[in-house]
Write a structure and sequence with these properties.
Number of helices: 6
Largest sheet: 2 strands, antiparallel
Shape: flat
Oligomer: single chain
Distance between the termini: 71 Å
């Protein structure tokens, strides 16, 4: 009887582990698909930077569990890719990352008026097609505009990912299995 119970618990544990692993792999693959779609969209919008944007996949790793929500992740990726296309600093936190940060903070303590205004500002910037979660964003901006500006700078630095940069890009001249004339390929330099 004891052996049967141990065996049954072990089988359940293994089954749970396999299901958790399958779910994690599926989530990772789904996130990779979103990243590829955002890269393709950015490449279409910025054809002069298409090669650099293609090689920007490594910048798009989620920095927070909250970025596993599709609309949050896509906004995050799109902002980073805009920075790549505009030669901006990819290390600073995105509006989505600041929203994630403020969400976590709001679970522990109430947000000040300026922090609430920053949350509204970042939400509107990151998710313009999503309804605002409260209506007082314009009031916070009117009352706390300059403090919100300062808080935005601080929050983007706090949400920064220090190693989120494009280092030396190397390319074999193949993108997704197709031979391409990439400016990073040895024959194109």
């Amino acid at each position: 009887m004891l052996y049967g119970e141990v065996r049954h618990k072990t089988e359940r544990s293994i089954s749970r582990l396999l299901q958790d692993t399958k779910n994690s792999v599926n989530e990772a693959l789904e996130t990779m698909d979103w990243a590829e779609e955002e890269i393709e969209s950015a490449r279409n919008s910025n054809p002069g930077m298409a090669d650099t944007l293609y090689h920007s996949f490594s910048l798009l790793r989620p920095s927070s569990e909250l970025l596993s929500t599709e609309f949050v992740y896509r906004s995050h990726a799109a902002e980073l890719l805009e920075r790549v296309a505009g030669d901006g600093d990819t290390r600073l936190g995105t509006a989505s990352e600041v929203c994630c940060l403020l969400c976590a903070i709001s679970q522990v303590a109430p947000l000040s008026s300026a922090a609430s205004g920053l949350y509204c500002r970042m939400w509107a910037m990151a998710f313009p097609d999503k309804p605002m979660f409260w209506e007082s964003g314009t009031h916070h901006e009117a009352l706390e505009g300059s403090r919100i500006d300062d808080l935005e700078s601080v929050a983007r630095r706090k949400a920064a990912v220090g190693d989120r940069t494009l280092t030396d890009i190397t390319c074999a001249g193949w993108h997704h299995g197709e031979e391409v004339a990439c400016r990073y390929a040895p024959s194109q330099r």
